[in-house]
Design a protein that fits this description.
9 strands, seven-stranded mixed sheet, single chain, alpha+beta, 462 residues, OB fold (Dihydrolipoamide Acetyltransferase, E2P)
């Protein structure tokens, strides 16, 4: 709440006073502790805001500076420039650089240029987007001098190895496939959308398939469902499949570079698998709530400024509450056949329903063909990932063998592209401008009512 609305100090003192009173009353202890946690949350946000206001690097915005720092992550290569995250002694600055010079993780650089405050665009608050990641300053095409390379500690050495494996996998994909097939596979396997054209991104948005080409909470949760289904098909018991799926998800998050969004997505995937293993919705919700509280205690800006965080938790809640009802309804029509296929479809739709209002509020678009396209693409996604991983990893060691194994993946990608191109029509998406926050409340009230109704009607079929 504090990250959205500023609470006056008089209200905080009043809530604290009431909390003490309620804690002293046996029947009101729970309410009192909830109030106390609210106060702690507000103070955590205020401490974060204080640190931002007093960040030394941020105070230099608008001036020409000379900084020394270390490239703190893999360079983000775009069509005609690259983004570098440079960590200095006073903070992190995000800079745009030309492509003619190659930079690597842990390179020591000297940068000279004008520090700027990130902009707020009409349809996108870039300042808040970077603020949640601890970046308060940007620099456009400064003078960059490569000085050397920082000696890596054990953790940084491990991260270097991961980035090297990721780069070799990217090269194997680009050897076996041409754009746009290669860019789709890079997005699906590596979570890397930099090579994807704006036209393809727009078509993915129109068809409602963007979540498949991203390391997001929705993506990893659906991937978790696919992995569990595949392991169960192979004959593993649900308990054993849970542990295998957790190991695979952890490896995948490391492989995609341990980005903040990827780590959050991995946590969401784990929570979804844990809720399935426990088999209790109420306990699953408690685990999700605890995970959210821990993540917000570490970075309270995620709640208001990170759409990925919001989508991650909503996707998990959708799968906990709505997936069983959808699965039961679909099984009525299919008479219990194709159970694993039904589970994948139900998981996809449940996640989409719970995340739809947030997508509408933030981006103002609704894909009218999303249910159809996800139904058409959903069954081939895990085969695309399986063959994609096989051809990519084996392609690291043998280009020709990787190319041979890429053949089935190629036909799956062609089918994927056909679905995208066929349904990416102007009529397939509805745009709403300036969606008011009140619609969020209305839509989620409707979703909650629908979920409760479907759960009661189908509870005997679970």
């Amino acid at each position: 709440m504090e990250s959205i609305l500023n609470s006056p100090q008089i209200i905080l003192w009043g809530v604290l006073f009431l909390a003490v009173i309620f804690i002293g009353i046996r029947k009101g202890a729970i309410i009192g502790f909830c109030m106390l946690l609210f106060i702690i949350g507000v103070l955590r946000v205020q401490i974060t805001e204080f640190n931002i206001e007093n960040n030394e690097l941020r105070k230099l915005n608008g001036t020409n500076v000379v900084l020394h720092g270390v490239i703190a992550d893999e360079p983000d290569i775009r069509d005609n420039y690259q983004k570098l995250k440079v960590k200095t002694k006073d903070g992190v600055v995000l800079i745009n650089a030309d492509l003619y010079q190659k930079y690597e993780y842990l390179d020591i650089v000297k940068i000279s240029g004008k520090l700027e405050t990130p902009q707020k665009f009409e349809d996108f608050n870039y300042k808040n987007y970077l603020m949640k990641d601890g970046i308060y300053s940007v620099m456009g095409f400064p003078k960059i001098e490569l000085i050397g390379k920082q000696k890596a500690n054990i953790g940084q050495q491990l991260y270097e190895k991961i980035l090297l494996l990721k780069q070799k996998t990217r090269q194997a994909i680009q050897y076996s496939f041409n754009p746009p097939e290669s860019s789709i596979l890079e997005g699906t396997i590596l979570g890397d959308n930099a090579a994807m054209s704006d036209e393809l991104k727009n078509n993915l948005n129109i068809t409602g398939l963007r979540h498949i080409i991203a390391v997001s909470g929705t993506h990893v949760v659906i991937l978790s469902s696919i992995i569990m289904s595949l392991l169960l098909i192979l004959g593993l018991k649900r308990g054993s499949a849970f542990y295998f799926a957790v190991v695979i998800i952890c490896f995948y998050i490391f492989f995609t570079g341990l980005s903040a969004s990827g780590v959050r997505a991995g946590i969401m995937g784990f929570l979804y698998l844990l809720a399935q293993k426990l088999g209790r919705q109420s306990l699953g919700v408690r685990v999700v709530a605890i995970a959210a509280a821990v993540m917000l205690a570490q970075n309270p800006l995620l709640l208001a400024f990170d759409v990925g965080f919001q989508l991650s938790f909503l996707a998990v809640l959708g799968l906990i509450f709505l997936e069983p009802a959808f699965e039961a309804i679909i099984n009525i029509f299919l008479k219990g056949k194709f159970k694993e296929f039904v589970k994948i479809v139900a998981a996809t739709f449940a996640a989409q329903v719970f995340t739809l209002p947030i997508l509408l509020y933030n981006f103002g678009n609704i894909s009218l063909v999303s249910p159809i396209t996800n139904l058409l693409v959903g069954p081939v996604v895990y085969w695309l990932m399986i063959f994609g991983f096989l051809s990519s990893f084996i392609g690291i060691f043998s280009n020709w063998l990787g190319w041979i194994l890429a053949t089935p993946c190629y036909f799956l990608l062609q089918y994927f592209l056909w679905v995208i191109n066929f349904f990416s029509q102007p009529w397939a998406i509805k745009t709403f401008e300036n969606v008011h926050w009140i619609w969020l409340i209305i839509l989620y009230c409707a979703i909650i009512a629908l979920t409760r109704y479907l759960s009661k009607k189908t509870s005997h079929l679970f």
